[in-house]
Amino acid sequence: MAALENEKSRLDDAARAGWLYFIAGHTQDEIAKMLQVSRASAQRLVSLCLAERLITFRLEHPIAACMELASKLKDRFDLVHCEVVPSDPASPHSTAGIAERCANLLDSTLRLETPVIVALGTGRAVRAAVERVTPIERPNHQIVSLVGNISADGSASFFDTVGRLADRTGARHYPMPLPFLMSTEDERNRMNRIEPIAKIQAIAARADLRLIGIGQMDQKAQVHVDGFVSREELFEMMRLGAIGEVTGWAYDAKGRLIKGGTNKRLTSIPPQVPARTTTIAAAIGQAKVPAISAALIGRLVNGLITDEATARAILDR
Amino acid sequence: MAALENEKSRLDDAARAGWLYFIAGHTQDEIAKMLQVSRASAQRLVSLCLAERLITFRLEHPIAACMELASKLKDRFDLVHCEVVPSDPASPHSTAGIAERCANLLDSTLRLETPVIVALGTGRAVRAAVERVTPIERPNHQIVSLVGNISADGSASFFDTVGRLADRTGARHYPMPLPFLMSTEDERNRMNRIEPIAKIQAIAARADLRLIGIGQMDQKAQVHVDGFVSREELFEMMRLGAIGEVTGWAYDAKGRLIKGGTNKRLTSIPPQVPARTTTIAAAIGQAKVPAISAALIGRLVNGLITDEATARAILDR
DNA sequence: CCAACGCGTGGGCATATGCTCAAACGCGAT
DNA sequence: ATCGCGTTTGAGCATATGCCCACGCGTTGG
Questions:
Q1: What confidence tier does B312 reach under pLDDT thresholds 50, 70, 90?
Q2: Does pLDDT of B295 surpass 80?
Q3: Res A1: pLDDT
């Protein structure tokens, strides 16, 4: 049917309009005349172009302050990779900037012709990053999830990061078909031994890149808000000293994994300590500062993508 | 002195403003408040950011029509590389679009770690492209000029493409310290035998990429306008059938190099026929259509970067 | 076959942007 | 300290932009 054709030509026009607007520097009035549409439509095309990310902006200039923060963080915590983007004072929790950089990191990793394995954890920034990855055909890559994708109520839910990234690359993908928490430690251990799960874990262990979020362990902990961990479980972990979590694994202020509590029943693949694989955390926000700091101190991650304000707060501790 | 410091921090602010404007999507009023300046200054910063190319736009969407034209050209003329950018109906001679793509091509070539040799010819698009190359440290690359850089009046003049590109990469560079035309064939041949020149020619012969412009041979021929070739010389070449030129080498409508005239006295490195090295021409404009077509037919180049209108005109012949 | 619906269109208005111009601000020289 | 020159700044205005609304066209479901 013609709908798809239309859709396509509309996107073409949008791209054309965006090109004329941003690159050639024309006004929307001029573009409207060129494309033979009303100015209002031209405006719509330009904004469609933006909404569909047909055009992207890249900042070529390494803002000195950010560069400096990044290099200090790199030194202080012995990181293999660190990026600091300018803060957006109006929305300090927006993932806009870091998602862009994460997407870039994924892009350049996935662009390689030699097969690579990318492991993904949780986090809003990770999700947003995946959405921004440039599609590229790489059927020999592998995308693997570090966390179970079955929520508490049994539905295979929350954002299917692995699937989305696989869509964009044609890579084989391995979501982890497990609940986030099992009911007992035994059950968890049994699960870890069954064939398909063990296989996924083996793949994850060979990952070339791990990209994960960092969650703080307070009343607003994402693992609790999303319903993976009950209020009681959360409080127990806090009593045990939990200050943050990566892929669900709670750790204390020194970045040491908590021995008991939900950590005994977690199905997620635990962090390597210290991280050997390139393991990049993407996290911003004042609330996460202690959690991020601890993860860096404990070497749960060896890379960080954050914003200026967060970077400063981490260094100021 | 502090001037440089100031300059730097001003650019930082510009980058920051650009980021907030284009990426975070704030209005200039908001940015002004954030950066503690007047709105007018915010506007200035944003436009400075644009002017300095601190931020760049990249069109992710392969505009179907352009893609199709590119692929037809590739097939028809057996090209190894072809790109077609949307035309800007308002300024059909603007190098904006193709310069961007050329810069991109240079970027990706220069990004390689293994030493590469890039040879540059003449042309406004080539010059503009060099200005847009992302600086990257590649001291082991080599940049070599295909044309003499001494103008008719003896000054080492016109735009020093090779030097500029070397500035941006730290690569060794080899401008050709010769006049564009010698006064006799003998003299030219003698020049070709002297040591440093022969060496440059040897390097150019091993180039991994040649990027050149195409000039038409009519009253407005660039070689004439720029004063490299006199009116009489130009007319003589036209009598001999010249329709276009690459790095000064005039050729006829079938793309065959003219045997006599200025070609006997040219110091530029002649095109390979047929091109074996990746040799990309960057050229747009109705006036250049016959010249571009002939160069493609004669296989003086095996790649083309042009715009939609020119591409269409070439295919319609 | 028609009604209801969705989607794109163009007009119009409030707001944001680009630009000009005169005033203020260094900054160096006297 | 003062003057003069060149640059930067902010007010104000003309213009461009973003968005809401009512309309029309095509599509879908009854």
A1: very high
A2: yes
A3: 36
Domain check: are B244 and B181 in the same one? Answer: yes
* Helix, strand, or coil (residue B257): strand
> Which of B133 and B94 is assigned the larger pLDDT?
B133
CA atoms within 13 A on the CB side of A53: 12
- Measure the CA–CA gap between B125 and A9, rounded to whole angstroms: 29
Query: Taking Cα atoms as reference points, which of B173, B157, B145, B152 lies closest to residue B268?
Result: B145
| pLDDT of amino acid A209 | 95
| Nearest CA-CA partner of B229 in B268, B274, B271, B195 | B268
Chain A residues contacting B, CB < 8 Å?
A: 8-9, 11-12, 14-16, 18-20, 22-24, 26, 30, 34, 49, 52-61, 63-65, 85-86, 88-91, 94, 96-97, 100, 134
Q: Write down the pLDDT at residue B152.
A: 57
Q: Are residues A148 and A262 in the same domain?
A: yes
Pairing of strands B244-246, B215-216: antiparallel
Could you tell me how many helices (H) and strands (E) chain B has, helices first? 13, 11
Q: Contact A39/A32 with Cβ under 8 angstroms? A: yes
Contact: A97, B24; criterion CB under 8 Å: yes
In angstroms, the CA B84 to CA B74 distance is 11
Chain segment B134-146, per-residue pLDDT in tens: 888 899 999 999 9
Q: Is residue B85 located within the same domain as residue B204?
A: yes
Q: Domain range for residue A244?
A: 64-315
DSSP assignment of A213-270 equals: E-EE-STT-HHHHTTSS-HHHHHHHHHTT--EEETTEEE-TTSPBPSSGGGGTB-SPP
A121 in a domain, yes or no? yes
B34: pLDDT confidence band, cut at 50, 70 and 90? confident
Co-location of B180 and B306 in the same domain: yes
Task: Output the pLDDT for position B118.
Answer: 95
Tokens of B102: 């050329």
Q: How far apart are CA A122 and CA A141, in angstroms?
A: 20
> Are B317 and B291 in contact, with CB atoms under 8 Å apart?
no
Nearest to A58 among B58, B64, B100 (CB): B58
pLDDT along chain A (317 residues), means of 10: 52 83 84 83 86 82 81 92 84 81 90 92 90 87 87 59 88 85 87 84 92 94 85 92 94 93 91 90 94 96 94 92
B58 and A55 within 8 Å at the Cβ level: the answer is: yes
